[in-house]
Inverse folding.
């Protein structure tokens, strides 16, 4: 009986590892494809561009996995937000700082839209922000206008002037810096466990 139970446990563990690796590959390939599609008129060799974008997506996946354990938002939430930026050709450099900037914005939208369809709301508000068209009805835009009456004008000027995603997120985060959400999350047991699971997941990905 013990042998059977042990065999089942080992089989489930292998399947879990396999699922993690498959999710990692599919997610990063999807992002790499989106980024490559935005560069088809660059005159560069597309296979080289794709390989570069794939490595970029893999690096950002890893930093987002670490950041998700320090945020209200889940890894899925953050990866969806990052993928949306990639789809608009506004890829972020794969740094811990950029992961934090993105997570702060996604967290605030989720808090401001509690009780609504948050997945859709987050995407709609991020999309509007990155296009410089923050709508009056957007929860985050209302919050930011309370801190800077010229927020919409400033955002529009930044986008039309070709500001990067990092510059836009830095500006938005500067308006949100009056409340440090991190110190509250650092006491969360569930987030500590999520960090542990995330580290195990990354170990599995790196091992294979």
């Amino acid at each position: 009986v013990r042998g059977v139970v042990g065999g089942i446990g080992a089989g489930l563990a292998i399947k879990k590892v396999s699922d993690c690796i498959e999710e990692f590959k599919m997610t990063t390939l999807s992002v790499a494809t989106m980024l490559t599609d935005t560069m088809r008129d660059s005159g560069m060799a597309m296979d080289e561009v794709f390989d570069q974008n794939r490595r970029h997506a893999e690096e950002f996946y890893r930093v987002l996995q670490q950041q998700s354990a320090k945020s209200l938002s889940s890894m899925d939430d953050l990866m969806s937000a990052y993928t949306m930026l990639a789809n608009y050709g506004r890829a972020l450099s794969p740094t811990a700082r950029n992961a934090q900037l993105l997570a702060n914005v996604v967290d605030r939208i989720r808090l401001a839209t509690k009780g609504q369809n948050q997945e859709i709301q987050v995407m709609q508000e991020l999309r509007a922000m990155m296009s410089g068209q923050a709508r009056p009805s957007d929860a985050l835009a209302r919050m930011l206008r309370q801190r800077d009456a010229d927020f919409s004008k400033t955002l529009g000027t930044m986008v039309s002037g070709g500001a990067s995603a990092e510059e836009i997120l830095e500006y938005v985060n500067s308006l949100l810096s009056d409340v440090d959400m991190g110190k509250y999350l650092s006491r969360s047991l569930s987030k500590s466990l999520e960090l542990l699971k995330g580290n195990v997941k990354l170990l599995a990905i790196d091992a294979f």
